[in-house]
Design goal:
219 residues, mainly alpha, de novo design (two linked rop proteins), 3-stranded antiparallel sheet, 7 helices, 3 strands, 5% strand
Length: 219
Amino acid sequence: MSWVFLRDLLSGVNKYSTGIGRIWVAVVFMFRLLVYVAAAENIWKHEHDEFECNIKQPGCENVCFDHFFPVSHIRLWALQLIMVSTPSLLVVFHVAYRENREKQHNQKLYRNPGKIDGGLLYTYLISLILKTGLEIVFLVLFYKLYNGFKIPHLVKCDIKPCPNTVDCYISKPTEKMIFLYFLVATSCLCIVLNLSELSYLIFKYSIKCYLKRHMKKHQ
């Protein structure tokens, strides 16, 4: 899979982000995207081929693998990475809309089209809420699908066409567990960063509105 489009998206968003937003972009790019491409993708690359059961009953391994891994970890992580990054497109599109308006009217309508104020502030806040919500949804989905954040060494399967309870072994469980914890931790870090940025922006513009009203009263 080519991740160039996601890299370009994150680079574009970085220009319009706050300081906390830039840290979020760095975490997503360095600790999630690069780790996924450089290491995690290869670890889970042959997960189905390396899943072994102690019986050669035709179809038994496939059914057991499908039962314990209904969705591939690595594909779910890829989907999560794409989904939590796409709300940032709202900000990019809003800035592009501002720039297009200035071109159409052939005059300066904004002091800085990329400055987070007015309508762009609401768009930015919506993107943060969506990113946070999607991160939480995917963490819950992981937990529900795999009965926790763990990779067992051995699973016992008694689903047809297996004739009895079969022992099935997962390859490289310790290595997979380490990366699982790392990716869950970075996802939690991103949630904290999004909530911090959301709180910062709301607090900053609440103070700004209060000072404006205070000045109007005195005038």
